[in-house]
Amino acid sequence: METWQAVLLGILEGLTEFIPVSSTGHVLLAGHFLGVHSPGRAFEVLIQLGAILAILAVYFGRLWATAAALPYKAQARSFALSVLIAFLPAAIVGAALHGFIKSVLFESPGLICIMLILGGFVLLAVDRFAVTPRYNDAMAFPPRLALKIGLFQTLAMIPGVSRSGATIVGGLLLGADKRSAAEFSFFLAMPTMAGAFAFDLYKNWTTLDLSNTTPIVVGFITAFIAALTVVRVLLEFVSRHGYAPFGWWRIIVGTVGLAALYASH
Question: How far apart (Å, rounded) are the C-alpha atoms in residues 154 and 240?
């Protein structure tokens, strides 16, 4: 992999990880058309650590205060429990189907394009769906709500669905407002992406060498910078404009991707 390719894919990962357009789908499609294929798809997963650290950087103060309050504040314990409960379904499904996901679904660019398009229409529909919000604080979501959002997150095992998209749509349908649905998706991303990172590092440790470690480091740095920018502006953007712009973007990218795949055969 050339350095410029690692930079491009890292930026793409960081820009798309926390918006509901499927970072994995974008990175896999870009890699397909660029002719990039990392051993065991290690690059595509390991650069997500940059995006995880971006979230930690933005929310460090609140997370530290919550951690410090765990021994004596019920709300802090409830928040930690909710994030853990929401994380478990994807962890179980991801570990059980890891081989199938990486060897079959990740190697299906046509499927990715289709899921991008379908997910785009879902976002457009949900954005217009009038649900009176019952939850407006992501750090106060009850465990039962968190579990249901976690079940939605398992849909993101299919590349092109979008982890953030699935959790945000789940939150919106279950009564969260647009801002808190996005913010809970941020919090849930940390254990989910960290778990995926650790599991893939374990699975692909023997395939990593100096020749592919350098692109991963470059991709990690660029993903961190790009994700940091997105996280700082996304909540305000969705509060004002909703999720329809992301739905249209998914439809355009998926359609162009299908056209390019058809033209290349």
Answer: 28
CA distance 121 to 157: 19
What is the residue type of 37? H
With a cut of 70, say whether residue 121 has pLDDT above it. Answer: yes
* Consecutive H or E run containing 217: helix 210-241
User: What would the pLDDT profile of 59-115 be if each residue is shown by its tens digit?
Assistant: 899 889 999 999 889 999 999 999 999 999 999 998 888 778 877 777 788 999 999
CA distance 165 to 147: 16
Nearest to 138 by CA among 83, 60, 56, 61: 83
Rounded (5°) CA angle 210-214-217: 130
Which residues are CB-contacts of 30 (< 8 A; sequence separation ≥ 6)? 8, 9, 12, 36
Which two structure tokens, joined as six digits, stand for 54?
A: 């971006």
- Nearest Cα neighbor of 31 from 16, 18, 12 is 12
User: pLDDT tens across 27-51, in order?
Assistant: 888 888 888 776 656 677 778 888 8
47 vs 9: CA distance, rounded Å: 9
C-alpha span between 175 and 178 (Å, rounded): 9
Find the Cα–Cα–Cα–Cα dihedral 202, 91, 168, 41, rounded to 10°.
30
Q: What does the block give as tokens for 77?
A: 């314990």
Determine the Cα–Cα distance for residues 88 and 94; give it in Å rounded to an integer. 10
The DSSP secondary-structure symbol of 265 reads -
Mean pLDDT for the chain overall: 86
**DSSP state for residue 193 in the 8-state scheme:** H
